[in-house]
Amino acid sequence: MKRQIALTLVAGALFGAGLAVSGMADPLRVRGFLDLFGTWDPTLAFVMGGALIPMAIAWRIQKRMPTPMAAERFTLPTARDLDPRLIGGSALFGIGWGVAGLCPGPAIADLAIAPVPAAIFVVAMLGGMILHRLLPAAPVKQPTLETSNV
Amino acid sequence: MGDLLANAMPIRGLIGGLMIGMASAIMLLGLGRIAGVSGLAARATGITVDGAPRPLSIAFVVGLPLGALLVALILGPVEARFEQGVVTLVIGGLLVGFGTRLGSGCTSGHGVCGMSRLSARSLVATATFMLTGFATVAAMNAMGLGQ
Q1: Residue of A43, A72, A122 with shortest CB distance to B10
Q2: What is the DSSP string of A97-150?
Q3: Cβ contact (<8 Å) for B93 and A29?
Q4: Is residue B135 part of a domain?
Q5: From CA A107, how far away is CA A68, in angstroms rounded?
């Protein structure tokens, strides 16, 4: 477990460093990408493109691996249905992303760069997550993301 | 094209993107898991019991600001222009938190990990949050709420 924790910490730090290097820690730049009809800033498209390359390769490698290098099994999403929750939730997320120029990764990384405003956003974000769990209309568990061995 | 890229950082964007992709690849090939920040954050804080073991979720979530801090220390100040007011941050945060739980992911889980897997769910999710993101900024600008 210690090895897994260390490896995950490295992955998290590399992810956070990537956000900082790419300009994605800057909400105004992210909002610039979403400002398609204004002063559009395409940087986020380069970031997404860059991130997809190693991952596209990683998925090909994953298919040939019986188990991960530092864990007993792969635990990956298996859901395939395009249900209203997926689309409605993503739509709401996009609205929040546009309003603030922040999604979860950059917001958490920014706790080290701009602690006060980042913390306000992150606390509200966790509040939204708790709200989702509490509301009777929303499921407490998410069977769609339930994992199994692949 | 010159105007279009006037404020953009294509090279830094690409390099940072490669780092994000490699971090996600470490999670996939090393730990056998999706590097989905919204899910890991919910698990790290105990808001959900589903997903990665809690110590791993905490490690990843702690790693994010640590990595940003290292970049600030090594390469110099990291730009993070927060010009939104508190109300905007709170409304945005609530929507992002609620929406990512309901939609099972965000820019990392659906955008980076799911799209590279050619997951239909993630392609639909990413197209949806991109569209509503574009529409929201356009609508706010039209209402004079631009930042």
Answers
A1: A43
A2: HHHHS--HHHHHHGGGTSHHHHHHHHHHHHHHHHHHHH-TTS-SS-GGG-EEE-
A3: no
A4: yes
A5: 29
Between positions 69 and 128 of A, the ones with CB within 8 A of B are 69-77, 79-82, 85-105, 107-114, 117-118, 120-128
Each residue's pLDDT tens digit in chain B (147 positions)? 456 667 899 999 999 999 999 999 999 999 999 999 999 999 999 999 999 999 999 999 999 999 999 999 999 999 999 999 999 999 999 999 999 999 999 999 999 999 999 999 999 999 999 999 999 999 999 998 865
How far apart CA A34 and CA B138 sit, in angstroms, is: 8
What's the whole-model pTM score?
0.94
B67 contacts A108? CB cut-off 8 A: no
Strands (DSSP E) found in A15-74: none
Beta pairing partners, A147: A77
What is the per-residue burial (b if ≥16 Cβ within 10 Å, else e) of B89-100? Answer: bbbbbbbbbbbb
Q: Is residue B3 part of a domain?
A: no
Domain ranges of chain A: 2-149
Global ipTM: 0.96
The partner residue sitting opposite A48, judged by closest CB among B42, B89, B111, is: B111
In a domain, B1, yes or no: no
Q: Does B97 touch chain A (CB under 8 A)?
A: yes
Count of domains forming chain B: 1
**Which helix (H) or strand (E) is B15 found in, with range?**
helix B10-25
